[in-house]
Design goal:
- The chain is α+β, with helices and mostly antiparallel strands.
- It has a single domain, classed as Ribonuclease Z/Hydroxyacylglutathione hydrolase-like (Metallo-beta-lactamase, Chain A, 4-Layer Sandwich).
- It starts with a strand and ends with a strand.
């Protein structure tokens, strides 16, 4: 278990939500490989390694989870298709920190894709499907939830109904309309772009600020606003949102948090998008 990243009075820890490989070109859209491979290593068959790293935020009063990883419901066939290289160990990772599943009070999802929301539910010891964090309130944008319930032909392959079984609005699901402070120092804001209801998470404590941009900024090598993934459903919205949010982060001297980077949990970017002050978690 890695040491925590300190943000004022907050502590952020990366947990193991699974590791897989995806086609390299899919992570950079129309950007030629000759350019992106200078910043991101690829396998001989053109795949890149992606972590799926839920972040445990301890505020001093609450244990907040940002994203939930792949979950433990993938079949052997799916593991082969997605080239899974490390298993989901979210519950075990919490246990190593002395936390049970019921200790998580809030779960924030940037969006509903299976690699971010797969751990919302899990197969329990009896083999049945259950909420992984039964005491938690789960936070999503209302537009995202509407699309989860009625996906279009493109998003249906990413929104899996079994990942949301048991979530009920007003009981354990809170839907956000645009922007909302979840608790002091923790705020979500809709970005759109990657999905219609994709949201960012702003964290602030002790005069320090961090921004989790989910799949708008999966890794530091995606810092160029035009280097968006082929998975973005609304690419021009992604470009505009990245420009806006990265400008805000720069003006605030904010840390950027990364869900998919295998090494870097947090860093700051200079004016050219180069990494500075990286915090690497093992």
């Amino acid at each position: 278990m890695s040491q925590g990243f300190r943000l004022g009075a907050f502590t952020i820890r990366r947990l193991q939500g699974g590791v897989f490989e995806v086609d390299g070109g899919s992570m950079f859209g129309v950007v030629p490989k000759a350019l992106w491979e200078q910043k991101c290593a690829a396998t001989p068959d053109n795949h890149v390694l992606l972590a799926n790293s839920p972040m445990l935020l301890h505020t001093g009063q609450s244990n907040v989870l940002i994203e939930t990883g792949l979950g433990n419901k993938l079949t052997p066939k799916q593991k082969g298709i997605f080239r899974v290289r490390a298993e989901w160990e979210l519950v075990a990772g919490l246990a190593r920190l002395g936390l049970c599943r019921e200790a998580i009070s809030h779960v924030i999802l940037t969006h509903g894709d299976f690699d971010h929301a797969g751990g919302v539910t899990m197969l329990g010891d009896s083999g049945g499907l259950e909420l992984t964090f039964p005491a938690a309130m789960h936070y999503m944008q209302r537009q995202e939830w509407e699309d989860v319930l009625a996906p279009n032909i493109r998003s249906a392959d990413a929104y899996w109904p079994e990942n949301f079984a048991g979530l009920v609005e007003g009981k354990n699901l809170h839907l956000v309309d645009g922007e909302e402070e979840i608790m002091p120092g923790v705020r979500v804001e809709r970005t759109g772009g990657h999905t219609r209801g994709h949201q960012a998470v702003w964290l602030e404590s002790g005069g320090q600020i961090a921004l989790h941009l989910g799949d708008l900024l999966p890794m530091p090598c995606n810092s160029n606003p035009l280097w968006i993934t082929a998975y973005d459903n609304f690419p021009l919205d992604s470009v505009a949102a990245k420009e806006r949010f990265l400008a805000q982060a720069g003006a605030k001297d904010a840390w950027l948090l990364f869900y998919h980077d295998p090494k870097i949990l947090a860093c700051k970017l200079d004016g050219d998008g180069a990494v500075r002050e990286p915090f690497c978690a093992q």
